[in-house]
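for the recovery benchmark. tokens below, seq after
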């Protein structure tokens, strides 16, 4: 009697594990993007729920052996494929570009998660990869409507993909807003990927040299060591109106989301500066703002489209020093107000809601 082959869902992800690695080695053996854990974790569980065995692969040009094994998968889902090192990113792009025509020729449906505007007009292998993915995709998965609008210009006009808007699930649990207590520091936190660090660097001199609405401030960086070193150096050169304490916690992927929860619960205020005029950032996911608000941080953010949808539970601004001052003055009133509004406005980001969509 012929053996029935197991039905599989192929997941192509970014990882700094060995090229060609698979399964837990690919997923956990090297540092990988938070978006892999946040976006594809629920997708893998959904695949298992409908009887598909997740087959997780890490493709790079150093090892293309797996390309020949692509054969009868039920679907292929591309995770976010990016890296700050151009050489590393090129090797990712080459390998995954090679997979696309094989998938199409074998009629394996392609679904693509698109959480950053990586097809934006620039001369890079990753941009070419995403233009090809957007053209050939059977389905596109976006974290917000604004990102979908940025992806559509790259579609094949004669065969547009199905679109799914699946918001990133909240990673934190509901926690109370902390009291601001005189004689103790106002604790401010910035957390995120180094790609967003330049917006933090721009704000540090402005915040320290203009803010006098509290006697003592503490700035925590939850991120990578290079970002922390630069931030600390900038802070040390500022002519601050009030004392500022610098604190650094290295982001540990293996400890998420517990580490993020702990750090956000410790802070009073989270700052999320960005640039709504930058096409790579303007349609960013809601996730950082949602995580901060849910964990009990007054959140001050740039007016990105996704953050504007949350305007009833955070402060939107292009003037962070002014908003920090006003936020501290109205801290008790605003946090009491947001306590009653959080669940109503953030329920669509629950893990249960996300799992249903997948």
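predicted aa per position
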């Amino acid at each position: 009697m012929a053996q029935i082959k197991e039905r599989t869902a192929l997941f192509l992800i970014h990882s700094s594990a060995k090229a060609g690695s698979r399964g837990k080695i690919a997923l956990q053996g090297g540092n990988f993007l938070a978006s892999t854990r946040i976006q594809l974790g629920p997708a893998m569980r959904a695949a298992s729920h409908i009887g598909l065995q997740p087959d997780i692969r890490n493709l790079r040009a150093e090892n293309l052996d797996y390309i020949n094994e692509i054969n009868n998968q039920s679907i292929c889902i591309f995770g976010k494929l990016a890296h700050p090192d151009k050489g590393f990113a090129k090797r990712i792009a080459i390998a995954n570009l090679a997979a696309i025509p094989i998938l199409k020729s074998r009629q394996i449906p392609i679904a693509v998660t698109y959480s950053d505007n990586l097809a934006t007009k620039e001369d890079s292998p990753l941009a070419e990869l995403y233009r090809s993915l957007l053209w050939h995709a059977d389905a596109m998965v976006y974290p917000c409507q604004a990102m979908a609008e940025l992806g559509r210009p790259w579609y094949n006009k004669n065969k547009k993909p199905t679109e799914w808007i699946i918001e990133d699930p909240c990673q934190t649990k509901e926690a109370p807003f902390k009291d601001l207590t005189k004689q103790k520091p106002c604790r401010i936190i910035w957390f995120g990927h180094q790609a967003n660090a330049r917006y933090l660097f721009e704000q540090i001199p402005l915040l320290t040299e203009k803010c006098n609405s509290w006697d003592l401030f503490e700035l925590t960086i939850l991120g990578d060591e290079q970002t922390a070193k630069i931030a600390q150096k900038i802070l040390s050169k500022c002519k601050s109106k009030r004392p500022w304490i610098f604190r650094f916690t290295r982001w540990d992927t293996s400890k998420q989301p517990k580490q993020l929860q702990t750090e956000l619960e410790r802070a009073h205020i989270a700052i999320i500066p960005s640039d709504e005029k930058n096409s790579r950032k303007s349609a960013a996911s809601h996730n950082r703002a949602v995580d901060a608000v849910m964990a009990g941080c007054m959140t001050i953010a740039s007016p990105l489209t996704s953050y504007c949808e949350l305007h009833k539970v955070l402060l939107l601004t292009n003037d962070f020093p002014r908003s920090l001052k006003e936020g501290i003055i109205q801290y008790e009133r605003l946090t009491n107000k947001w306590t009653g509004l959080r669940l109503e406005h953030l329920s669509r980001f629950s893990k249960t809601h996300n799992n249903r969509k997948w």
